[in-house]
Specification:
Layout (H helix, E strand, L loop, with lengths): L6 E5 L3 H13 L3 E5 L2 H7 L6 E6 L7 H10 L6 E5 L4 H9 L4 E4 L4 H13 L8 H12 L3 H11 L4 H8 L3 H14 L5 H10 L3
Parallel strand pairs: 1-2, 1-3, 3-4, 4-5
């Protein structure tokens, strides 16, 4: 889709953040609307057509996860990208389970957020699921060892390496090695990409 075919709705309680992101996207050719809070956006959501949501994860009135869940209840479903601070990965994983297309960890490069928005916008096109992609993901999952699958389970649950190591009675360093192998075998570009593939495959 062309950037002019949809509107990016930015939800963030911090004015400098939302204005900065709105300026960045506006200069890149995106049509942008900003919202002061999740509550404000939720009220307007039923009237949104061809919209992509970019929401912060931690907000005082309603978290990004709660916003996505409320959108599902209101049947105002639209593709969403969640922005998260360091240490919010477990919540970000919950957001993806609630329907987010991607999560971006702060600080992020300009191109990273724009590419995530474009991936989300692609969901606005009514097209059948790409079975080949799902099949290839299952093939990659099948290449993982039992231990690598255990580590992936911990990663998808949003657990830090130290906790995964404790649960599996192995060292954090060993978890790092297995996690690196999982990333390579799954051909994951990033942690969000890995989590997205696992969720798509119903892992």
């Amino acid at each position: 889709m062309q950037t002019s075919d949809y509107v990016v709705h930015i939800v963030d309680d911090e004015e400098p953040v939302r204005n900065s992101l709105a300026f960045l996207l506006g200069t890149a050719g995106f049509t942008v609307r900003i919202h002061n809070s999740a509550t404000d956006f939720l009220a307007a959501a039923p009237t949104v057509i061809n919209g992509v949501l970019v929401t912060d994860l931690r907000m005082p009135d309603m978290s990004g996860v709660e916003l996505l869940r409320n959108l599902l209840l209101a049947k105002a479903i639209l593709p969403a990208v969640v922005i998260t601070g360091h240490g919010d990965v477990p919540m970000a994983v919950e957001a993806m389970k609630a329907g987010a297309i991607d999560f971006i960890e702060k600080p992020f490069e300009d191109v990273v957020i724009m590419e995530a928005i474009q991936r989300a916008a692609a969901q606005l096109i009514d097209k059948p699921a790409d079975a080949d992609d799902i099949v290839s993901i299952h093939v990659r999952l099948g290449s993982l060892s039992d231990r690598e699958r255990q580590v992936l389970t911990g990663v998808v649950a949003g657990l830090p390496n130290k906790l995964i190591a404790y649960d599996l009675s192995i060292s954090p360093r060993t978890v790092e090695v297995h996690r690196s192998n999982v990333m390579a075998k799954m051909q994951a570009r990033s942690l969000p990409h890995l989590v997205r593939m696992a969720l798509v495959a119903g892992f």
